[in-house]
Give the backbone structure.
Amino acid sequence: METSKAEIAAAAARMVVEEGLEYGPAKRRAVKQLGLGGRCALPGNDEIEDAVREYLELFASDTQPQELAALRRQALLWMERLQTFRPYLSGAVWHGTATRNSDIYLQLFCDDSKSAEIALIDRKVVYEARTVTGFNGQSTEALSVHSWCDELQEDIGVHLLVYDLDDVRGALKPDARGRSPRGNVQAVRRLVHDPAL
């Protein structure tokens, strides 16, 4: 049973790094690819993250740090543009496992949930609105944009997840490993200026 979980984690990690898949879809596709039954035990997200870090160390250690730095700078650019909405960076770009195939996830905490969308319209930013499941398990509006990254010479997906201002308290609780699951503008600036943090 544990071997299957390790195999799933390794296969999913490859898909996360090489194709930019999120953990959930990568796990499901890995199960299918490995020919395992639908009832097999899946690895947790921490196990996938560990496998991603191992994969990066083995196969992408020469390119991933520069790609991560470029993505963090791109995220900071958007965070500074959206400072009014109290942005927090989350996901692979925050945790340090992102590659050029990864998207940027920013969580905005707004007094008025429509204000972020209005700000994009005012700036003539083309976006796609959809509803996703947020970190609190509830439906959350996501505004997705394509943002050109000069350093990587390609469009990067930037997803703005819009929450109520009151949700920020729950957002700052440490994850299962005791880490902050997201960082504000000041924290991201520190990472940009000192990647070793």
Q: What stands out?
A: The two ends are 36 Å apart (CA to CA).
